Amino acid sequence: MRKVTLTLDSETLRRLDRLSRPRAGNKSFVVREAVRLMAEADDLEDRLAALEASPEFQASMTRALKEIQEGKLISHAEVERRFRSAKTRSRRRT
After folding, report:
1. Dist CA 83 CA 38 (whole Å)
2. pLDDT score, position 90
3. What's the structural domain count of the chain?
4. Over its length of 94 residues, how does the chain's per-residue pLDDT go in tens digits?
5. Could you tell me which residues come within 8 angstroms of residue 58 by beta carbon, excluding any fewer than 6 positions away?
6. Distance CA 87, CA 81 (A)
């Protein structure tokens, strides 16, 4: 690992202090975790953007919107009922 120097405003420093307390005061750990989480969020945003750009996804969303506009919907309660029914059938087979 390498050492780095950071400049933090007072509010961010207060948050770093608060987050590091239950971690034995390990501010380096908190900063590493924050960077890791931010990088993962960026990766997720990139993956979502790629998904949204895919023709298959766009076609699927177009079909879904058409079905919604045509009133081809089922209630949440019906989805739950169908799920429970399928789960029960699956358990009987095992």
Report:
1. 35
2. 78
3. 2
4. 899 999 999 999 999 999 999 999 999 999 999 999 999 999 999 999 999 999 999 999 999 999 999 999 999 999 999 999 998 887 877 6
5. 52
6. 10
The contacts of residue 29 (CB under 8 Å, 6+ apart) are 20, 23
Same domain? For 34 and 67 the reply is no
Containing structural domain, residue 28: 1-41
Q: Is there a single domain that holds both residue 31 and residue 59?
A: no
Report how far residue 21's alpha carbon sits from residue 37's, in angstroms, rounded to the nearest whole number: 19
pLDDT of residue 29: 95
Structure-block tokens of residue 33 = 């975790």
- For the chain, the residue count is 94
Domain membership of residue 46 (yes or no) is: no
Encoding tokens for residue 34?
């924050």
- Identity at 17, one-letter amino acid code: D
Q: Is 49 within a domain?
A: no
- d(Cα 12, Cα 4) in Å, to the nearest integer? 17
